[in-house]
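Bit of a strange request maybe. I'm writing a small parser for C-alpha cell strings and I need a real example to test against, not something I typed by hand. Could someone generate the C-alpha cells for this chain?
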Amino acid sequence: MPTTSAQGIFPWLRTVVLLAALVVIALLVIAPFLIAIATATGSAAQPTGSAVDNVSPIFGVTIPQGYRQWEMIAPAEEAAPLNELRVVLGNETAITAYRNGALPFPDGAVLVKLAWKRVQSSEFEPASVPGSATTVQVMVKDSRKYPSTGGWGFGRFVNGKPADEAQHETCFACHEAGVKNHDFVFTRLAP
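Reply from user aminoacidic:
Good idea to test on real output. This should exercise your parser:
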C-alpha cells in the first residue's frame, strides 16, 4: 500500500501557503508607506477635526507644516505704528520662481511671513531684536482655486489661530493696490 503524504494529496497546498505568506509580508512592508501617503494627502487637502479651527476664513488657508525650515526670501522692518521685524520664507516652488525671476508665480508657490514686535537689544543697544510674535501670514498660489484674488489665497494667524473674516477681506485689496504689477507680492528676493 502506497504511503500518502500531504504533498501527494494536496500538491497545490504548498503553493497556496507560500503565496499567502508572500502577500502577508508584502502588506507588512508596504502598509506603513501607504498609510503615510494617505495621511499626508488627506491632511493637506481637507483639514479634519480640530484642524478646521486653524483654517483661514474665505480662503481656507492653513499654516504649512515645516515652514520654519524653508529658505528665507527677505527680512523687513515695519515702522510705526506696527513697529515689527518680519521675515518672509518660501517653499521650494516660490524660491525657484524668485531665483528665475518668474512672474507670475507658479501654482504651488507658498510664502509665509513671520512678524515680531521690534525691541531694543539688552545686550547691544543699537540693535533691534524680535520681541513677542504678532502674526504668521500665508499666501498660497492656486490660480484655479483663487481666480478672483489674482490666484492667491491668504491666511493671517495670531497664536496659531486664524484672524477673523473682516481682516481677511482686506488682504487682496492691499496687495492689489500696492503690487499688482508684481503678481500681488510685496516681498523681493534679498540679494
